[in-house]
C-alpha cells in the first residue's frame, strides 16, 4: 500500500472536528484554525530548494497536521498526517 493510500485510509477512520474539516488542504496560504498547536518544524529539500514543514496537533480532535511552506508550489499547504 502506498503512503497516500495509507493516509487516505487513516483519514476515513478519523473523526475531524468542525474547525479541522474547514481547513482547505493542499493550498498554500490557506489558514488553519485557533486550536492547532505547533509541534515543531523541519527543513526538506525540493527540486527548487529548501522548504519548511511545520507540524501541528489539534487540541479538540487530536488530528495531526503538517503545513508545507513551499513558495514554488501553490498546492503545498495543509495535509493530514494522522490522528
- Summing up helix and strand content along with how strands pair, one would put the structural category as alpha+beta
Compute the average pLDDT: 88
| Straight-line distance between termini | 19 Å
Radius of gyration: 13 Å
Task: Name the overall outline.
Answer: globular
Report the major sheet: 4 strands, antiparallel
Overview of this structure, please?
With 83 residues, the chain is α+β, with helices and mostly antiparallel strands. The chain has one domain. It has helices at 3-13, 18-21, and strands at residues 36-46, 49-58, 64-69, 77-82. The protein has a four-stranded antiparallel beta sheet with strand order 1-2-3-4. The chain is globular, with a radius of gyration of 13 Å. The model has no long low-confidence stretch (mean pLDDT 88).
Topology:
Blueprint: H1 3-13, H2 18-21, E1 36-46, E2 49-58, E3 64-69, E4 77-82
Amino acid at each position: 500500500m502506498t503512503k497516500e493510500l495509507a493516509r487516505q485510509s487513516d483519514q476515513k477512520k478519523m473523526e475531524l472536528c468542525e474547525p479541522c474539516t474547514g481547513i482547505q488542504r493542499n493550498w498554500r496560504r490557506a489558514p488553519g484554525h485557533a486550536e492547532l498547536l505547533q509541534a515543531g518544524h523541519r527543513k526538506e529539500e525540493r527540486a527548487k530548494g529548501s522548504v519548511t514543514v511545520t507540524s501541528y496537533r489539534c487540541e479538540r480532535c487530536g488530528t495531526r497536521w503538517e503545513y508545507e511552506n513551499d513558495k514554488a508550489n501553490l498546492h503545498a499547504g495543509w495535509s493530514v498526517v494522522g490522528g
